[in-house]
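INFO  loader      accepted 1 record
INFO  loader      residues=476
INFO  predictor   begin
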Amino acid sequence: MCCPICANSEPIPSWKREYLTLAVTAGFQHLFRASQFVLKSLGRAFFFCMGFMQIKVKGKKADTTEAPILVVAPHSSFFDAAVNIVAEIPSTVSRAENADIPLFGLLLQCSQPVLVSRHETNSRRKTVEEITKRAQSRGKWPQLMIFPEGTCTNRTCLITFKSGAFIPGVPVQPVIIRYPNRLDTVTWTWQGPNAMTLMFLTLCQPCSNVEVEFLPVYVPSEEEKCDPLLYSSRVRNIMALALDLPITDHTFEDCRLMISAGELTLPMEAGLVEFTKINKKLNLNWDNVRSQLDNFAAIADISKGGRIGIEEFANHLKLPVTPPLREVFALFDRNGDGTIDFREYIIGLVVLCSPANTEETIKFAFQLFDLDGDEYISEDEFAALLRSSLGVHDLDVSKLFSDIDVKGIGKISYEIFREFALAHPEYAKLFTTYLELQRYKVLQTKDDSDDVGTVKNAQSSTASDESLSSSDKKAD
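INFO  predictor   done
INFO  writer      dumping tokens
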């Protein structure tokens, strides 16, 4: 290694390199401590001016080597920065957008944060890698503070914790925050007052209170180290018990869906589908659910509060309300209230329709419609089978047929039929229901025929016996 100033100088001895490294490290540590002091002083001054005369602290903060990560909940306000002050200004995981805020962004940068963009998948992966590197550094990096909920709530429950803080598999210290005030002037969520309004309302109170409690350090088991979701769930249960709050499977993705629902003129609560639970059980990702929200919005009747009734369901399928259609609708309507909400719609598509929409089912359906076997379905053939299945002799299927016949040539090939069936899985379940009904009717007719045959055989046998008996009597 040569001196950077002069390429021709003698190599620097190893002891000098170590000395320079220690000097630079010590310089950074002094700078970080100085910035910590400044940030703590400014933070306490801000809270004092806002009416928080004292930040009440319970419990004791663990050392960095004992618990590299602090997990804080519930996250409900920008006033939650009180935890930063009493926790000696740890590094935080924050939105990348916050670094661009005048003055606040500069102060945030001083705490050596991990910045994440919640709308970029690649950024999230890098964030997890950075959290893991710092958490496993054995005290070389400052303690990390993470709000595992990932978004602000109204503190009435704990939503699903994101797994980022638990992926490294290191011990964490749960930290809970309370605002024991008569009036809530701090909650800053997706709907409600903005930041300036909340600050004004808080200033209007003579005194505001905030409590920060450090719970005992939680050391994960080997099972929890291998399963971050299990680890996060158990830590959440401990914090919920300390707060005396319920838990829910809603997540930040539900908030995104809620906003998307509002943009589609649906009630915002239509997007609250307990995304984590659905994702865990049905293996759905955000993009799939968001695209289905567009389809649901196109069907839903706004006057019914963003829910689908049997009439909207029939109009969507361009079919009349018939017993087979009602049966399929009842399968979607899980709570039996006569309407389908967005959550029921997603579950219905994945659990009921997609398994029925197989290549084999599509081929079989095409063969049934193709009455003359010319490998095309004409409108007459299409109408004949649907009229028979639905029991509606004057059924008009021209609109539905034209939707499938995208080329407008008056007939449908298997490729076009298959493409339409895959894009509209509702028809697959509807068609298989028709087949089941037809099969049931055939079996019922067969059973009735067998019963009639049995009766006739019994009657003829009885008649023969009577005839034989009368002959015997005459013989006698």
